[in-house]
Amino acid sequence: MSEDGAVGIVLVSHSAEVAASVAALAKGLSGGAAAVPVAPAGGTEGGGLGTSAELIAAAAASVDRGAGVAVLTDLGSAVLTVKALLAEGDELPEGTRLVDAPFVEGAVAAVVTAAAGGDLDAVEAAAVEAYAYRKV
What we know:
Elements: E1 8-13, H1 16-29, E2 38-42, H2 53-63, E3 69-73, H3 76-88, E4 96-98, H4 103-115, H5 120-129
Parallel strand pairs: 1-2, 1-3, 3-4
């Protein structure tokens, strides 16, 4: 795996609208992060609520620039679907990693870190650190 591109980020939600909105929010809050490939993978192929292995695999392929792909998920079956794809071994690009992080805050931290040139380990660490963000 070459390290000449930015870390790609895939946002997996049960809702296409939620995934797309979180992607837009993360890119917007990071100053646009034009160089960071971010892809939403929300809902099913038919536009319903749920998760789709095919949409996740396509999103991961679309953001793969050779530096790894960080996948953040919202809820239960999204996590299970990504884990199943990773276990299959050939459905996702080499260097794809499921990141255990809060969906919105983790996505913002991941995109900001990737935009700053962080590698996959740094992107994952920033997203995971978002669990500690306090609101009160």
